[in-house]
Specification:
Layout lengths: L1 H33 L19 H13 L5 H7 L4 H13 L15
Length: 110
């Protein structure tokens, strides 16, 4: 029983590491603009993505792919991504350490 659990755990960790490696490889093209650490973009008008919520990143990429968001460069990048690619990229980039700051909600409510 313990051996079966250990084997299943090793298989999960191995497949998880392979998924992370695949996502990191897919993310290399994104790093050209967003920075190698996804925290130092090449210009101020390109967002920092490291540490962003994965569901937000996935939605943004899906919207670029569908045309719901308009940006010629991002739409071109997203058009070749599958739904699984988008989920994997979002999880990978969202898990990276970032310097995004969360502003308290009361600053926006008057």
């Amino acid at each position: 029983m313990k051996a079966s659990f250990f084997i299943a755990l090793l298989a999960f960790v191995s497949s998880s590491a392979q998924a992370d490696a695949a996502a990191a490889q897919k993310a290399e093209v994104c790093a050209a603009c967003h920075g190698a650490d996804f925290n130092t973009p090449i210009s101020e008008d390109i967002p920092r993505l490291a540490g962003q919520y994965p569901d937000y990143l996935a939605r943004a990429m899906a919207d670029y792919k569908s045309g719901g968001r308009k940006n010629a460069l991002m739409s071109g990048q997203a058009e070749g991504l599958s739904a699984q690619d988008i989920e994997e990229l979002a999880a990978y980039i969202g898990a990276l350490p970032g310097t995004l700051k969360v502003l308290p909600l009361h600053r926006f409510i008057r």
